[in-house]
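Chain entry —
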Amino acid sequence: MMEVKPKNDGTRKLFDSVVLERLTRTHIAVPTSILVLYSAALFYWSLTHTALTWGIATLLFFAGLFVFTWVEYNAHRYIFHMATYSKLRAKIQYTIHGVHHEYPRDKERLAMPPILSVTISTILLLVLRLVMGDYVFAFLPGFLVGYSVYLGIHYIIHAFPPPRNFFKVLWVNHSIHHYKDGELVFGVSSPLWDYIYGTMPVDNRNG
């Protein structure tokens, strides 16, 4: 990933097109609300139009939630922080994530734009339907709720001061990622995979 110096305020224009530039920005409530409604509709479908029981559907939901934490970690580490050994890759990386590292307090760029969120969610639904069959209607809601929770936590971390409770660790971890070492602490909603894959700072591992 390109090295950028974090700025405490401001923003940057990514596209000359007014439409494209507007599509890169969103209020956090828009994608999170869409994702929750999308998830609720899919889960309702799983209970009313498939043979899944409440018990199986619930287990699949929490499986999707857990799998999301792993996907979140790997997407952040290997896609958002991709190696920028060419001008094209550098431009792509900066557009999808580098701009956030340069302007971490830009509240309109703390979530994926709604159009992309819906598009990716629908692609996942179609692809996983081929692999999982009807199970996808309970698994994907958990995955998408996990993503919505991630978005909310990420927004709160950047928009508000740390709380005086055990959630403070998420603020501390993400601050290390932004202001000390961008190649550590890739988990935002959970530190689990940083511990498993060894990307948690030594001091944090030792408590």
